[in-house]
Amino acid sequence: MTDSRERFLIRYAGGFAPFVVARAEGAWVETADGRRVLDFTSGQICSTIGHNHPRITGAIRQALDRVMHLNSWMLSEPVLALAERLASLLPAPLGKVILLNTGSEANEVALKLAKMHTGRFEVVGLTRSFHGLLAGIASVNFSMAHAGYGPLLPGAFALPAPYAYRCPVRHCDGACDCTCLEAGFELVDQQSVGSLCALIAEPVLSAGGVIVPPDGYFRRLRELCEEREMLLVLDEAQTGFGRLGTMFGFEHDGIVPDLVAVSKTLGGGIPLAATITSPEIEESCVARGFLHVTSHVSDPLPAAAGLAVLAVIEEERLVDGARERGEYLLERLRELQAKHEQVGDVRGRGLLVGLELVEDRESCRPANALGAAVTGECLRRGLSMNIVRAGSSANCFRMAPPLTITRDEIDLAVEILDASLTAVLAERPELTRV
Ligand SMILES: Cc1ncc(COP(=O)(O)O)c(C=O)c1O
Predict the structure, then answer these.
(1) Prior bond to 93 cis, omega within 30?
(2) Ligand 1 center–CA 11 separation, angstroms
(3) DSSP letters of 22-54?
(4) What is the pLDDT of residues 11-57, one digit of tens each?
(5) Whose Cα sits closest to atom 3 in ligand 1?
(6) Which residue among 22, 110, 114, 354 sits deepest, i.e. has the most Cβ atoms within 10 Å of its Cβ?
(7) What is the number of the ligand 1 atom nearest to the C-alpha of 134?
(8) Whole-prediction pTM
C-alpha cells in the first residue's frame, strides 16, 4: 500500500523518514507527534550554525521587508556586501564572486569558467567523489548516479581516491603514500586527447565515505596540475566555513586553488552558493562572452542569510569550536571502536567524521545490512545519522553535526550509537561473521 506521504511526491532518493517534522532548532528536529531527534547531519550538511538560527531568520525577515528578488542585472546591498566578505575571507587572487543557489550549480559554473579560460574541456575528478546531480557536473561524480540517464559529458577522467583503509591500488595499508595519485595521473595522461582543463576535488571526500587525504596530498596534486597547465577547482560545499576546523578545507595543505565553489554551509539552510576565482580568469572569460544569467543569480534574500551565517561563525568562533569538538567526537568514537569489533575504522577532520562498519576486522568486508539496521535503531532512539553509499558499499556513517554542537550532545549521540549497535548485534547476530 502506498504511504500517504508518498502519494503526491516523486521519491527522489528511495523513501522518506518515518515521521513528519514540525519544527527545528539548533541540533534538534521535532516531529509532528512531539518526538525530539538529534540531527547529526545538520539537515543536508547545511545548517552549520544550527537549525533556524535567529540571526538567519532575522536577516530573512529584514529581506522580506526590503527586497528579496530582483532582475539579475540589478544589485542590492546584501549581494555587494556578501561578495566583498567572501573575497576578504579567501586568499589572493581569489577575489571575484558570483552568487548562485546550489552546490551543483556552483561547480558547473566553476567548470564553465575553467573551460572558457583554458579553451580545453577534459576534467579530472576523484573516484568516490560527489559534486552534484546536474548532467554536466554529474559526469565527474564518481561515487554514484551515473546509471540510467544516458551519455555523460566526454572528457571526464577519474583518479583513484586516497582511501587508505581500502587502498584502491592495493598498495598502502592504513596510511596513503600518494601512489594512487601518481598512478592515476599516468592513466589520465594516456587517455587524454590533449585537452586537460581542470581537476575538481573535495578537500575531504564526504559522500564517498569521509575520506581524508594524507597531509601534502593537495600540494602534490597542485604540482601535477601545474605541470599540465590544468586549473584546480576545490568543491567546498561541505567543508567551507569551518567544518574541518579551518575556514576552508584547502588551508590544511597551504595551497590556493584557481576556483572555489561554496554552497551548502554558506546559506545555513537557505539555497545559496558561490563560485570564486581570480580577476585574471574572470576577465578572460568575460572577454570570451561568459554567460550565466539565471532566475536567482544575485538574489538579495539568500545573500542576507549568508551574511548572517558568516557573522555568526566569526562571532561564536565556530571554526575553532569545530576543531575542538571534532577531536572530542573522534576520541569518543575511538572508544566505541575499541569496544565493538564491527567498528572497522574511525576517521575525520574537524566535525566531518566517518565510522565504517565491517563484518569483522580481519576481512574488513563492508557490513551494509548492519549499517542499515543500526541507522534505523539510532533513529528509533532519537539520533538521525546517515550511511553514505559509494559503489557497492553502504557501511560508513557520515557525521556532520552543527558546529554549535555541545559536548553533552556529542555524548548523547555516542551513547545512542553504542546502545543501538549493542541491541542490533544481540538481536541479529547473522549481520556479522564474528
Ligand atoms: C561536496 C558536494 N558538492 C556538491 C554537492 C551538490 O550540492 P547541491 O545538492 O546543493 O546541488 C554536494 C551535495 O551533497 C556535495 O556534498
Answers:
(1) yes
(2) 19
(3) EEEEBTEEEETTS-EEEETTHHHHT-TT-BT-H
(4) 998 889 999 999 999 999 999 999 999 999 999 999 999 999 999 99
(5) 131
(6) 110
(7) 11
(8) 0.96
